[in-house]
Design brief:
88 residues, mainly alpha, 6 helices, 0% strand
């Protein structure tokens, strides 16, 4: 909440933590601004059937820093992102 109020730009990990911390790591994020692990966040987005296009895009931005096995999920998330995008 503090970071959002002061207008600070959040990193991809912080953006996803801000969304998912309520169910996974609320106290550490809320009181100490300790973000969740990138691997946990990527899995959270992948397993969230209601993840928005923005959350999916942010999760995809995490891929370069994740182990190679996460690259297999890239196609799945790209397909979801394409379906979530508005058609012209």
């Amino acid at each position: 909440m503090f970071l959002r109020r002061c207008g600070a730009a959040l990193s991809p990990v912080e953006t996803l933590t801000d969304h998912y911390a309520a169910t996974h790591a609320h106290p550490l994020w809320r009181w100490r601004l300790v973000p969740m692990d990138a691997e946990v966040l990527f899995r959270a987005v992948r397993e969230d059937p209601r993840a928005t296009a923005e959350l999916i895009a942010v999760a995809l931005a995490l891929l370069p820093g994740l182990p190679a096995e996460f690259a297999l999920a890239e196609g799945d998330l790209l397909a979801r992102l394409e379906r979530a995008a508005p058609t012209p």
